[in-house]
Amino acid sequence: MSSEFHTLSKDGLWENNPALVQLLGLCPLLAVSGTITNALGLGIATLLVLVGSNITVSLVRNFVPNEIRIPVFVIVIATFVTLVELTMNAFTYGLYMALGIFIPLIVTNCAIIGRAEAYASKNNWYKAGFDGLMMGLGFAAVLVALGAMRELIGQGTLFDGAELLLGEWASSLRVQLIEFDYPLLIAILPPGAFIGLGFLIAGKNWLDARKREKLAKAPVEKAQRARVTHVS
Amino acid sequence: MSFYIASSPHHHQRRTTAKLMQLVLFAMLPGFLAQLYFFGWGVIFQLSLAIAVALAAESLCLIARDRAPASGLQDNTAIVTAALLAVSIPPLAPWWVIVIGTLFAIVVVKHLFGGVGHNIFNPAMAGYVLLLISFPVQMTAWMPPTGLASNAPGFIDSLYLFLFQFTNEGFSLEQVRRIDTGSMLDAVVMATPLDHVKTQLSQGATLSEALQHRQFTGFAGAGWQWVNFAYLLGGLLLLQQRVIQWHIPVAMLGALSICAILGSIFAPDLLPGLNIHLFSGATMFAAFFIATDPVSAATSSKGKLIYATLIGVLIYVIRSYGGYPDAVAFAVLLANLCVPVIDQYTRPVTYGHRKEES
């Protein structure tokens, strides 16, 4: 049992990461990862929707006819997105304005419907919920990493505008690490997102390759062989 | 005994890449000298720094990829990339601009895609676009051509501007770029011909009003026309030496000319004419030196015609309706993206075979 949860978390966070390996949900990933705050906001929203929709889909999986499962999934996901959207509108209005169309667009995030179809519709609710949590964390982690990279290169800060997400106290989180006279604007512009994601994927593949190399190099215990045939 | 077996083409001049690249560099010389004459010493500093950075980056990349740096450096492709980028950017842009551009061109655009012969984008133009959208102010600060600048910087002042963005006496680039209009109060910073025409047209002036500006001596803007002629000369040399084929320059200039002529027929006072399009910007440089890059261009003759026509049309459309005054880099990169498709559908039929019915 615990090994299954272990596999689920390993898959979601690394081996089958929705952003780095499955390359799903790239539209919001690329569009709103300009700063850590935006990335974190969208990451948390996606995480909440993913957990909610996975649990719900898993609970109704035995009552939904196979032929209309996709529309049902979409309605479930859209419901949760609406919940999250209204919540953000109420509590984090600045961030809600900053993310704009990309909150409703979580509905079309393929990572979510992909998990509903591939995992939640075949497993019980707590496993599906855990899977949603891990996939959501993996997605949010990549979003935040990309947001940090772009924010640092593009404006030299980290956590710029964190008060939009976390409340007034968070404005002290903002750190100016580098003072640019002329920041490398491309990092904040759309091309920077593609290039940055490319580097992240390359980095992950490089780490994996290094790990595999190490495994291959590790000495394999050879079984002692004794000759049992007769040599004439 | 062993036979030398190679794939077609079987009839070839055995010229190495290094030799071809030397010829390209040599053919750039007239244009380079024209730029040196009209825009001052800056272009020399840009070129030296670009080549130094390119060679260093190329060696490091080759070492990181477990290749022998010596063999890679000898093919001169890094130097050509550096030279193409160095002459594309404003001569007195700060030193870090060319460093960032060259590093991006060599490391990301060339070596991350697989090194010589594998890059899908033209490295110099990708580097240029990175710089243009990252540092719009520095990348549009061209000097007024010689004769118009009110206080053109000398060698030492140019070096100071290049390194510190201020001359020895403390003039900024903005001040140095002013042109003499009689009184100091009227001194204005001058835009490039294409930029000037675009700005004027967007402010509701007609083309003939825009061309009233005193930089439009001759037929396409002081300085710029001669730089273009010089690159045309170098390009003809490349053609004569058979470093490049006629397809790309002819198709690109042809497509651009047809568009420009049509534009002047239908909206003579709202769209710049043929002379402006051909001789005011980077057109000649692009037609002979950028679009003809053998790696990122289409392969077959028919493919080259399609590819270059696409560039010509894109240059016209972006110049006329886009946000930037010149469009060569964007057009070339967009056409580079189309090359795999073009190559797929223009594959020549091998001798003795029929064309497959598709």
Automatic annotation (TrEMBL), chain A:
<feature type="transmembrane region" description="Helical">
    <location>
        <begin position="182"/>
        <end position="202"/>
    </location>
</feature>
<keyword id="KW-1133">Transmembrane helix</keyword>
<keyword id="KW-1278">Translocase</keyword>
<dbReference type="InterPro" id="IPR003667">
    <property type="entry name" value="NqrDE/RnfAE"/>
</dbReference>
<dbReference type="InterPro" id="IPR010968">
    <property type="entry name" value="RnfE"/>
</dbReference>
<comment type="subunit">
    <text>The complex is composed of six subunits: RnfA, RnfB, RnfC, RnfD, RnfE and RnfG.</text>
</comment>
<keyword id="KW-1003">Cell membrane</keyword>
<dbReference type="Pfam" id="PF02508">
    <property type="entry name" value="Rnf-Nqr"/>
</dbReference>
<keyword id="KW-0813">Transport</keyword>
<feature type="transmembrane region" description="Helical">
    <location>
        <begin position="94"/>
        <end position="116"/>
    </location>
</feature>
<comment type="similarity">
    <text>Belongs to the NqrDE/RnfAE family.</text>
</comment>
<feature type="transmembrane region" description="Helical">
    <location>
        <begin position="20"/>
        <end position="50"/>
    </location>
</feature>
<feature type="transmembrane region" description="Helical">
    <location>
        <begin position="128"/>
        <end position="149"/>
    </location>
</feature>
<comment type="function">
    <text>Part of a membrane-bound complex that couples electron transfer with translocation of ions across the membrane.</text>
</comment>
<feature type="transmembrane region" description="Helical">
    <location>
        <begin position="70"/>
        <end position="88"/>
    </location>
</feature>
<keyword id="KW-0249">Electron transport</keyword>
<keyword id="KW-0472">Membrane</keyword>
<keyword id="KW-0997">Cell inner membrane</keyword>
<keyword id="KW-0812">Transmembrane</keyword>
<dbReference type="GO" id="GO:0022900">
    <property type="term" value="P:electron transport chain"/>
</dbReference>
<dbReference type="GO" id="GO:0012505">
    <property type="term" value="C:endomembrane system"/>
</dbReference>
<dbReference type="GO" id="GO:0005886">
    <property type="term" value="C:plasma membrane"/>
</dbReference>
Automatic annotation (TrEMBL), chain B:
<keyword id="KW-0472">Membrane</keyword>
<keyword id="KW-0997">Cell inner membrane</keyword>
<keyword id="KW-1003">Cell membrane</keyword>
<dbReference type="GO" id="GO:0055085">
    <property type="term" value="P:transmembrane transport"/>
</dbReference>
<feature type="transmembrane region" description="Helical">
    <location>
        <begin position="273"/>
        <end position="292"/>
    </location>
</feature>
<comment type="function">
    <text>Part of a membrane-bound complex that couples electron transfer with translocation of ions across the membrane.</text>
</comment>
<comment type="subunit">
    <text>The complex is composed of six subunits: RnfA, RnfB, RnfC, RnfD, RnfE and RnfG.</text>
</comment>
<dbReference type="InterPro" id="IPR011303">
    <property type="entry name" value="RnfD_bac"/>
</dbReference>
<protein>
    <recommendedName>
        <fullName>Ion-translocating oxidoreductase complex subunit D</fullName>
        <ecNumber>7.-.-.-</ecNumber>
    </recommendedName>
</protein>
<dbReference type="InterPro" id="IPR004338">
    <property type="entry name" value="NqrB/RnfD"/>
</dbReference>
<feature type="modified residue" description="FMN phosphoryl threonine">
    <location>
        <position position="192"/>
    </location>
</feature>
<keyword id="KW-0597">Phosphoprotein</keyword>
<feature type="transmembrane region" description="Helical">
    <location>
        <begin position="20"/>
        <end position="38"/>
    </location>
</feature>
<feature type="transmembrane region" description="Helical">
    <location>
        <begin position="246"/>
        <end position="267"/>
    </location>
</feature>
<dbReference type="Pfam" id="PF03116">
    <property type="entry name" value="NQR2_RnfD_RnfE"/>
</dbReference>
<keyword id="KW-0813">Transport</keyword>
<feature type="transmembrane region" description="Helical">
    <location>
        <begin position="304"/>
        <end position="321"/>
    </location>
</feature>
<keyword id="KW-0285">Flavoprotein</keyword>
<keyword id="KW-0812">Transmembrane</keyword>
<keyword id="KW-0249">Electron transport</keyword>
<keyword id="KW-1133">Transmembrane helix</keyword>
<dbReference type="GO" id="GO:0005886">
    <property type="term" value="C:plasma membrane"/>
</dbReference>
